Amino acid sequence: MAQRLKEDVRARLVDAALSEFVRQGWRGARLVDIAAAAGASIGNVYRYFPDKEALLRAAVPPELGTELVRLLRGRVRALGAMGDWRLGDAAGSDRAAALLAFWIAHRREVVVLLGRAEGSPLAHVRPLVAGELTRAAARYLRDHSDRPVPREVRFVLERIFEGTLGMIVDVLAAHETPEEISAAFGAFWRFQLAGLQALLAPPRPPRGAGGRARR
């Protein structure tokens, strides 16, 4: 019985820490508030975790960040092979469905990884994901146009994917049920995928260059 109670205290501390990291971010979360939310003393926190970093590792295991990046890479590769990106939502893409399922299963952890980890040992995950997405889109452009990606277009791609990560965090922070999360991402993907396909399509020649002359 005693051992089970100890495991229960540890589990409550981890759950409270995860909620506090979501609410306050890594820098704003305080051990005293985590202890209070778990119904434990600050002394109990230190019995199980030497510091806030140890609590973070327990609440958001590093392998979750690795798995998130892996799923996103697969998602982007699958899009690159699709003719019509507008069909690349969870209903039309196994990779999208797997990514969505991961977001739903690890809702709070993903919020921390992509939006609340500044200053922590996990702070590298968000820029890593943004860079992966930008490079993949730029590679798609190069493969389909045989020309270097213009600096201005790369700038736009970087900002788009920064916004994408912000949207992922906002959706997961504002919604809790699988149905709500799926509906929100469905709406976002309908908007984003059509826009990305238009942006990454080969540019049309100016009117007058083989078409009707400008008036």
Automatic annotation (TrEMBL):
Residues 7-67 form the HTH tetR-type domain. InterPro entries: Homeodomain-like_sf (IPR009057), HTH-type_TetR-like_transc_reg (IPR050109), HTH_TetR (IPR001647). Residues 30-49 bind DNA. GO terms for molecular function: DNA-binding transcription factor activity; transcription cis-regulatory region binding. It comes from the Bacteria. Keywords: DNA-binding, Transcription, Transcription regulation. This is Transcriptional regulator, TetR family.
